[in-house]
Design brief:
The protein is α+β, with helices and mostly antiparallel strands. 36% of the residues lie in helices and 20% in strands. Strands 12, 13, 14, 15, 16, 17, 18 and 19 form an 8-stranded antiparallel β-sheet that branches. A 5-stranded antiparallel β-sheet has the order 5-6-10-8-9. Strands 1-2-4-3 form a 4-stranded mixed β-sheet, sandwiched between helices. It binds (2R)-2-hydroxypentanedioic acid (2HG) and zinc ion.
Length: 478
């Protein structure tokens, strides 16, 4: 049976209300507005209803009711996807299942260094819970104030500390997942070693809500940070940034917490569009933010960073640098980094290319992709920034000043293709951390086709044979 008539949809809404209570089922367009459009404003969906269960049992019940009615289910966390991964289609048939009410910290265990948290907790709330126990949840992304644990895991978020601690998937020891038949898989194990067959939890991490709905997770923690040193540097070139990265890797192998790149173009947008921002160094074409952190005997970090920066100055790798002298100053440096997305949003329509290449190839990527894009669309603003330590650059293209946003976006596919040609030539990936979502399904055949896509489809068919979970995401439409 499918949701194709008002009788069926009306019946589904009534049974959802009976299961969850009136207030947990939204159907008015004004109530559903915030759940129907993505953060970038690229996809305007039209859900049948938005449901907000409070327990795992309720999530399972919703999935069962939707399965009986043949309604697609779109799981949604903080709705911060950059690729439309949590937006329903425009057909009015899908139920958006918001996890926002599942927000318990079930446990923090300082002995085994784990925390068990529910899906709807924001990443920032989870970080704070770990910190309260003297521990560190070592994952940080610009949207952490809104992004929720379930979405962070479902999309295998990366972010600012990946070069030290890995992506979200590297932190997951156990998961609780609601399956397509409404069953619950309790895989909330706390084991650091468990070598018994296929690693099922890793199937769900990065599946973008297409295989199951993550309701809780056991995450691996690190000792809390006891000392930091940070610097904001102006550099003459991207090559110089890589030389500085190598210096730091040799001198602070365990302490390099983040090494973030910002182009002069992208920083210009932050200074222009984000109130109160100010550069701590002289203006340049390239900047990096260095953040070092230690868990024990932090006393040596600052002199060490000062020493490395001194050497780099002498080697002409940096033009100017500001060392943070207080936590407030370190946070001000990070503010300059974290506001890039917001500043670019305010600058007009943008085409995002969340790409990765081998770290040594980043200078080539930036040079060749910028030249090719400028030739293809004169006047556009190339405004790259990102996680240089991981070779992951947000090679974003902003509409020409004063141009018509819609006319610029018409070129989106063609310009992404221009960037991706360069990325492919360098052995890179077309989506390093934001996933595939709805936006990039068209690229899957070309980039992951053949054996890989066949295996992925097999997994999808085994776990969600009726294609009810987040249809239209990851896989190109049949
Ligand atoms: C970041 O690194 C995010 O700040 C967003 O991944 C990137 O806005 C973007 O393109
Ligand atoms: Zn990023």
């Amino acid at each position: 049976m499918t949701v194709d008539g008002s009788a069926v949809t009306g019946e589904l809404v009534s049974s959802l209300r009976a299961a969850l209570g009136e207030g947990a089922v939204l159907v008015e367009p004004s109530d559903m507005a915030g759940y129907s459009v993505d953060w970038r404003g690229l996809y305007q969906g039209r859900p049948l209803a938005v449901v907000r269960p409070s327990t795992v049992a309720q999530v399972a019940k919703v999935v069962r009711l939707c399965a009986e009615a043949g309604a697609p289910v779109v799981p949604q966390g903080g709705n911060t996807s950059m690729v439309g991964g949590a937006t329903p289609s425009g057909t009015g048939t899908a139920v958006v299942l918001s996890l926002e009410r599942l927000r318990q910290v079930r446990a923090v265990d300082p002995v085994e260094m784990t925390m068990t948290v529910e899906a709807g907790l924001t990443l920032r709330q989870a970080q704070a819970a770990a910190e309260a126990a003297g521990l560190l949840l070592p994952l940080s992304i610009s949207s952490e104030g809104s992004a929720q644990i379930g979405g962070v895991l479902a999309t295998n978020a990366g972010g600012n500390n990946t070069l030290r601690f890995g992506n979200a998937r590297d932190l997951v020891l156990g998961l609780e997942v609601v399956l397509a038949d409404g069953g619950v898989w309790d895989g909330l194990r706390h084991l650091h070693k468990d070598n018994t067959g296929y690693c099922l939890r890793q199937l769900f991490v990065g599946s973008e809500g297409t295989l199951g709905i993550i309701t809780a997770a056991v995450l691996r923690l690190q000792p809390g940070i006891t000392g930091r040193a940070a610097a904001f540097c102006a550099l003459p070139s991207v090559e110089a940034a890589l030389a500085l990265l190598s210096r730091l890797r040799l001198r602070a192998p365990a302490g390099l917490h983040a090494f973030e790149y910002m182009s002069g173009a992208s920083m210009g947008l932050v200074l222009r569009h984000i109130e109160g921002t100010q550069l701590p160094v002289s203006p340049a074409d390239h900047y990096v933010l260095i953040d070092l952190a230690a868990c024990a005997d932090a006393g040596g970090l600052e002199p060490m960073l000062e020493g490395v920066l001194g050497e780099a100055l002498e080697a002409d790798e940096i033009l100017d640098a500001a060392l943070s002298r207080s936590e407030a100053q370190r946070l001000a440096f990070w503010h300059l980094r974290e506001e890039h997305s917001e500043a670019q949003k305010r600058a007009g329509a943008s085409i995002k290319n969340d790409v990765s290449v081998p770290v040594s190839q980043v200078p080539v990527l930036l040079r060749d992709a910028a030249a090719a894009c400028e030739a293809a669309a004169p006047g556009l603003r190339v405004a790259p920034f990102g996680h240089l330590g991981d070779g992951n650059i947000h090679l974003n293209l902003i509409q020409p000043e004063g141009a018509d946003p819609a006319a610029f976006l018409v070129q989106a596919d063609a310009l992404m293709q221009v960037v991706n040609e360069v990325v492919r030539g360098l052995g890179g990936s077309f989506s390093a951390e934001h996933g595939v979502g709805r936006l990039k399904t068209g690229l899957m055949e070309e980039w992951r086709g053949g054996v890989e896509l066949r295996l992925m489809r097999g997994i999808k068919a085994a776990l969600d044979p009726a294609n009810r979970f987040n249809p239209g995401v990851i896989f190109p439409a049949p």
